[in-house]
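Fold it.
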Amino acid sequence: MIGAGQAGLSAAYHLQRRGFVPATPEPAAPAGAVPPRTYIVLDAEDGPGGAWRHRWKSLLMATVNGISDLPGIAQPDVDPAEASSSFLTRYFAGYEEELGLAIERPLKVRAVRREDDDPAGRLRITTSRGEWSARAVINATGTWTRPFWPIYPGQTTFRGRQLHVADYASAEEFRGLHVIVVGGGISAVGLLDEISKVTATTWFTRREPVWRDAAFDRQAGHDAVALVEERVRQGLPPQSVVAVTGLIWTPALRAAAARGVLERHPMFTGIEPDGVRLADGGFLAADVILWATGFRAELEHLAPLHLRGPGGGIAMDGTRVAVEPRVHLVGYGPSSSTIGANRAGRAAVTGIAKMLAGPG
């Protein structure tokens, strides 16, 4: 297993439920007994929490976009005013400790390769702290480490500050500056609301966002996930679920709209030293460009397996990679939400257990 965020911990839980035991130290088996099936979780972080360790402090539990319980252990009582980064790091740490999960950290997985040409053979995982050999790999590395930066003409000439939401700390550092926020997702509108309370902002998106007055019901949510799932089944790069569902009006966002903050502008055509060139040819001066433009899946270590198809994505059959059934991706595509990650962790373990059991 690679990664110990929500999806990785979910998969580790289901591995233990199916009788897998930690691979280190090497478990002993009585003479003549079948050796136990083992697992290990390899995590790049310094401690528990996954990507939540790095979220900005102003992202509170009251405003975070819905967090599902990890399987088996419910979240402790939540203080809505607590930063999500501290609460969820603490929750994940307690979860790991209570279940005694086998997690090695910190280490960086550099590559996953086939050990030989046998399609039922083993996979070699090369890390910054040695190598592991495995019958199967569950990849749960998420997206936080791969922020997506669009490229625009003149971008390198900008004399102000450019940053991605992955680098965002607080609105206060922008006080007195004009901040351009680029992006049409949940992070974009949330940070736009936050920053606009201390300074001037302007919002740009490629497309007009689709707003919803209420959360999806079960059927609508299922249909939205199915659209994302169909893309990855065809081997196309996944879309985020929010790209399908649209944005939901919350009281905070309605208040922001009433303040005039959510006036969306079409994307600028270029970046100049002191601002941006507008679609209508005009010029807008700016001090900061905040790119709330999403993330891409962190899958570079899987490149030696040549999983990507002609469409640029990885064709999937559920959580299993279609061309390499020994590899499962959780927290990818339709399972990138917290609820989806839990379901994907269970599904991946079910698939691996069936594969290890062999025919029949």
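The mean pLDDT is 88.
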